[in-house]
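Page 42, continued from yesterday. The earlier attempt failed because a stray header line got pasted into the input along with the sequence. Redoing it now with the clean sequence only.
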Amino acid sequence: MKTKLLTVLISFMLMLSGCSDSGETASPAVVLESIALTPANPSLPAGLTQQLTATGTYSNGTSVDITSSISSWSSDTNSSATINSAGLVSSVAVGSAVMTASLEGISGTTTVTVTAALLESIALTPANPSVAKGLTQQLTATGTYSDGTSVDITSSISLWSSDFNASATVSDSGLVSTVDSGSAVITASLDGISATTTVTITAASLQSIALTPANPSIAKGLTQQLTATGTYSDSTAVDLTASITTWSSATTAAATVNSAGLVSGVDVGSALITASFEGISATTTVTTTAAVLESIVLTPANPSIAKGLTQQLSATGTYSDGTSVDITSSISSWISDTNSSATINSSGL
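This time it went through. Structure tokens are written below.
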């Protein structure tokens, strides 16, 4: 037993002696002393993200990227910004949040400031519209922001422009006015973001039709020619009478109309006349009145009578509806141009 203890003691002394002879000492451990987060105190618009980098400085003076080694990432105000386990900050709403990264009992912080959402894109609607010459088209600008919201920014657009004013112009409110057939690229710009749409201007389109004379009155049996005048989107007026595709009467018992717009009075009453062309219609009301007297015939024609005798004349009236009626008793005035040869009384004798 004493021999064994002596052996161990000698070995221990030899070991100490060897260490002393070589001059070697134990190295102190390298420890993490601080963490720095970059970028420092970043500012980002709502809806965007920011990757933070964690750099650890050690007791031996070395600095190392320890982002992937951080044991805990946290935000003190998640309502403004959050951070995930990889150090990616997501901005939520305007405000600020302190981000903390921790490892081995050492922490580093940075303050993230969240600003208003940033405009990322603009869309113009309607997209690539086609507009007839002379008409207008209101464009709407919708902005999409970094926080995912979409807002009507039509009234906020700082610049509206047309690349070809000879075809179309655009006002400060986004109202496109067509000038002539062709196309124009309309651009809307705000905060360095722009959007475009191409407006195609087609030939003027028919806007309305007017029938003249307006609401005419015609005697039974007579006719009335209607004229159809079309007004186009460029304000031009054109006689469309011969081009009308459909003429119609709502009450043919009172009046009819043919394919050329000629109205015929059939019987006392009224009828709505309609003219249609290219999807546009116009109406007028035709009133048919009683037939009117158009001519009178006296019989016998050119009679010869002996002096002292009499001759009864008969008056036959022909009316606008083609009827013939004995109107002898209705004649308002009978006269003779030479009373020295023959006279006539109020009954045509």
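Notes: The helical segments are 2-22.
Reminder to self: strip header lines before submitting.
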